Structures are given as structure tokens and as C-alpha cells.
């Protein structure tokens, strides 16, 4: 009788794929949990409380332990990480919370699917990575589908809240794309947990004055009136979405190719729509299905072009000049 024992080598190959599958499930449910918590609070207050608790309860203690037993970050690494953290954690998180408060969870997941496209654009502008013809077609299809979904095909009749929310969510993914580009080289030389915890320590103080300007500090006393369900949702956002997913994402990203990581993002709208139907009673329309399929097809074209292996010498030169790669955007919220 044949056996199907998993060898240690095969287990090492499967582990990052399992991590990324779990991450996609968490990211999908993150939209649902955020919508539920936002029924009792404002986007600014949720961002303030969520990031402060995540940093104080986990990232600060973890960073101090890592710093004691590991090599400290160099000054240049702190500068790079500082720019990435303010852009990829702080600004991105605020845009996510405001954007999702103005849209449905399913719509938000589709807007956030455009993240790899924005990363490709940023790579072209700041790194010089070429965008091929097939990539350009794929990006045009995805962006056009996202625009149609946001406007309903007519700017004059578009839902302003949905449109602004969609723009904020795409902006959220654009800044997260910059975070991915800036931190990818650091992950090649530093433990992922070091990068995640240090990024949180930089981003959280940057969030405080912005959320204060939004009125979150004056709303702090309202947290004692939150229901048990809201506190449960916040706990999920802090410990599962805020800690587990970021750690798993960093470790999984380190050990897979961009094309492998990219494939997992195709599952997000499916999972989100499923969770939204159960917990939020959201209905999936025909336009959502068609535009969602078009966005995924465009992303597939972009990824297919980028996944083609270059000649060995070209790859070696590219690795020396540009250690970054287009990878799926993490859940910044």
C-alpha cells in the first residue's frame, strides 16, 4: 500500500504556502471585523486604539527581546524602515480605516486587489523596472474594471462615498506597495520579526497626532461604552490581524517567489464575499462579479509577464541592482 509521507524538504517548501493561505484568510476576515467594530466607533479612534494596543502589548516587548539577543539595525536601515513605516503602516492604515467605513467589505477587497498594480507602477518610477506590453494591457484591464466598479460607469451618477472610499483604499494599497519595495531588501538580511516590530514602533507614534487631528483623542472616553462584541472584534484585529498576519506574511514572503505569493491574493475577494454574506448580509451583484473577474484576469496578465524567467546573467545583474519584487500587498488595516 503506497504511503504519502512528507519529507522534511517538502515540509519546508509547503510551510510558507500554508502561512500565506492563513494570511489571506485573516486579511479577508479583517475587512469584516473592521466593518463590525466601525458600527460603534470612528475610523480615527479605531486606528488609534488598535495600533497603540498592538504596539504596547506585542511589538514593543518583542522588539526589546530581539534587540537584546540580535544584531542592532544599522542607521541606513533605520532610515529606510522609517520611511517605509510611516508610509506603509501609518498612512496606509488610516486610509484603509476611512475607506472601508465608506464602502462594503466585498467592494473594499476588490479595490485592494489593485495593490500589486500600484507596486508595479512604483517600481517603474523609483526603481526603473520595465513594464512590458502584456503587463500594460493587464494593468489597463484591472484599473478600468476598478474604475467602473467605483463609479457604476458614470462619474455624474457615482456614489460619492463609494468613489472616495475606493480612492482611499487604492491609495492605501499604493503606500503599502512602497512599504513592500522598501522592506523587501531588509528581509534578505534581517529576521522578519525584527522588521515587523521595528516598523510598528515607528508607525504608531506617527499615527497619534493625525488621529488627534481627526478628533480621536476627544473620543477616547467612549471606549468604555463599547459592547462586548466590539471589544471582541478589536481583540481579533489586534492579536490576529495585527500580530499573527504580519508575522506570517513576513516569514512567508521571505521564502516564496513573487508569482507564488501573488497567486494567493486571487482568493481574497472570494473569502471576503463569503464572510460578508454571513456576518454583514452583503449581497454580491452581477457587476461586482464581472468587474472582480476582470480585475483578477488583469492581475494574472501582469503576474504572468513578470513571472517569466530572465536569462541567468540578466537575473544576476537585476538582483544586484534591484532586490525588490512585486508581491501581494499585505493587509495594512
The total number of structural domains is: 1
Rg estimate, integer Å: 20 Å
Structural class by sheet pairing and helices: mainly alpha
Question: Per DSSP, what share of the residues sits in E-state strands of 2 or more residues?
Answer: under 5%
Number of strand elements: 0
Assembly state (oligomeric): single chain
- Write down the secondary-structure element order: HHHHHHHHHHHHH
How far the N terminus sits from the C terminus, by CA atoms, comes to: 49 Å
Average pLDDT score: 78
The stretches of 5 or more residues where confidence is low (pLDDT under 50) are 309-330
Helix content: over 70%
The number of helices is: 13
Approximate shape: globular
The main pleated sheet reads as: none
Describe the structure.
The structure is a single chain. The protein has helices at residues 8-37, 43-69, 75-101, 105-112, 115-127, 133-151, 160-187, 192-213, 228-254, 258-265, 268-279, 286-306, 312-321. Helix 1 packs across helix 11 (268-279), helix 6 runs antiparallel to helix 12 (286-306) and helix 8 crosses helix 9. The longest helix has 30 residues, at 8-37. The protein has one domain (19-321). The model is unreliable at 309-330 (pLDDT under 50). It is 76% helix and 0% strand. The chain is mainly α.
What is this entry, summarized?
With 333 residues, the chain is an all-alpha fold.
Supply the key terms.
single chain, 333 residues, mainly alpha, 13 helices, globular
Amino acid at each position: 500500500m503506497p504511503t504519502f509521507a512528507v519529507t522534511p524538504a517538502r515540509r519546508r517548501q509547503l510551510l510558507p504556502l500554508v502561512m500565506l493561505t492563513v494570511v489571506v484568510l485573516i486579511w479577508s476576515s479583517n475587512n469584516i471585523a473592521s466593518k463590525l467594530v466601525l458600527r460603534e466607533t470612528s475610523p480615527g479612534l479605531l486606528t488609534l486604539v488598535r495600533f497603540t494596543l498592538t504596539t504596547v502589548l506585542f511589538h514593543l516587548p518583542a522588539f526589546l527581546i530581539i534587540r537584546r539577543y540580535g544584531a542592532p539595525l544599522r542607521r541606513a536601515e533605520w532610515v529606510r524602515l522609517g520611511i517605509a513605516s510611516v508610509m506603509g503602516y501609518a498612512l496606509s492604515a488610516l486610509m484603509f480605516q476611512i475607506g472601508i467605513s465608506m464602502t462594503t467589505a466585498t467592494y473594499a477587497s476588490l479595490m485592494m486587489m489593485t495593490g500589486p498594480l500600484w507596486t508595479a507602477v512604483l517600481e517603474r518610477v523609483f526603481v526603473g523596472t520595465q513594464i512590458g506590453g502584456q503587463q500594460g494591457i493587464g494593468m489597463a484591464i484591472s484599473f478600468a474594471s476598478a474604475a467602473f466598479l467605483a463609479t457604476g460607469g458614470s462619474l455624474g451618477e457615482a456614489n460619492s462615498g463609494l468613489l472616495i472610499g475606493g480612492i482611499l483604499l487604492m491609495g492605501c494599497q499604493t503606500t503599502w506597495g512602497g512599504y513592500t519595495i522598501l522592506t523587501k531588501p531588509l528581509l534578505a538580511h534581517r529576521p522578519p520579526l525584527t522588521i515587523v516590530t521595528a516598523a510598528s514602533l515607528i508607525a504608531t507614534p506617527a499615527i497619534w497626532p493625525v488621529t488627534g487631528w481627526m478628533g480621536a483623542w476627544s473620543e477616547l472616553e467612549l471606549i468604555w461604552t463599547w459592547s462586548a462584541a466590539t471589544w471582541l472584534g478589536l481583540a481579533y484585529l489586534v492579536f490576529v490581524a495585527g500580530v499573527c498576519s504580519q508575522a506570517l506574511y513576513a516569514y512567508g514572503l521571505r521564502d516564496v517567489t513573487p508569482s507564488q505569493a501573488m497567486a494567493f491574493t486571487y482568493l481574497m475577494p472570494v473569502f471576503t464575499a463569503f464572510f460578508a454574506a454571513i456576518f454583514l448580509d452583503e449581497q454580491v451583484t452581477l457587476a461586482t462579479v464581472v468587474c472582480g473577474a476582470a480585475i483578477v484576469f488583469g492581475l494574472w496578465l501582469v503576474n504572468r509577464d513578470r513571472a517569466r524567467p530572465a536569462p541567468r546573467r540578466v537575473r544576476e545583474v537585476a538582483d544586484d541592482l534591484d532586490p525588490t519584487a512585486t508581491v501581494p500587498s499585505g493587509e495594512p488595516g
